[in-house]
Amino acid sequence: MSNELFQKIISGDEKAFEIVFLKYFKSMCFNARLFGLSHDESKEVVQHTFLKFWEIKSRLQAQGPVENYLYKSLRNNCIDFARSQKKLQDKIDASLIANELPTSNDGDWVVYEELENKFRRTLENLPPQMKEIFVLSRIEGLKYKEIAERLGLSVKTVETQVSRALSRFRTELKDYLPFLLFLFIKIK
Q: Is 172 within a domain?
């Protein structure tokens, strides 16, 4: 049955793909959690695994059960995700260290530390894809088109994800707006 479904998916049968998706999604999410991913991260990685599976279906050869292919792909995607998160955290840390810190008085420093912690928490709470897009756009300075090409997404998706991330930051950091204005005026 599994090989039969695999063959149908390779042929472009959407119904067969849906059957496999519904059958394995929860189990794969559980499996992804074993790699240390959060609930949302595991769902996103599993969705990414299924998306890539569908995108490259015509280049696959059904050798063995479909679940063997899916779980091997999931394992690789979880490892890639963990590596990207480590690189992302390293870049954020380097960026924060490289930025000029306020030095005028202890009050500014305390507020700056609070702001930095709130920024980090907000960034960490973004869904993985949104976080990756935000970092590529706002920290690495890539253009939307470059991000879209790098991640295999549409430019509109990148725009939407950045907009949503900025909205979350505005909501989470609204109490720090007066300090931010004061800080940027002092730096200039």
A: yes
**Does residue 88 form part of some domain?**
no
The DSSP code sequence of 132-173 is HHHIIIIIS---HHHHHHHHT--HHHHHHHHHHHHHHHHHHT
pTM, full prediction: 0.47
Confidence at 15, pLDDT banded by 50, 70, 90: very high
pLDDT at 70 over 80: yes
Domain endpoint, select from 31, 53, 81 = 81
Q: How many helices (H) does the chain have, and how many strands (E)?
A: 9, 0
Cβ 136 vs Cβ 144: under 8 Å = no
Give the domain extent around 42. Answer: 2-81
| Spatial CA neighbour of 132 closest among 49, 74, 45 | 45
Nearest to 123 by CA among 144, 143, 142, 95: 95
Q: Give the integer Cα–Cα distance in Å for 129 and 40.
A: 11
Closest CA to 150 of 84, 103, 86: 84
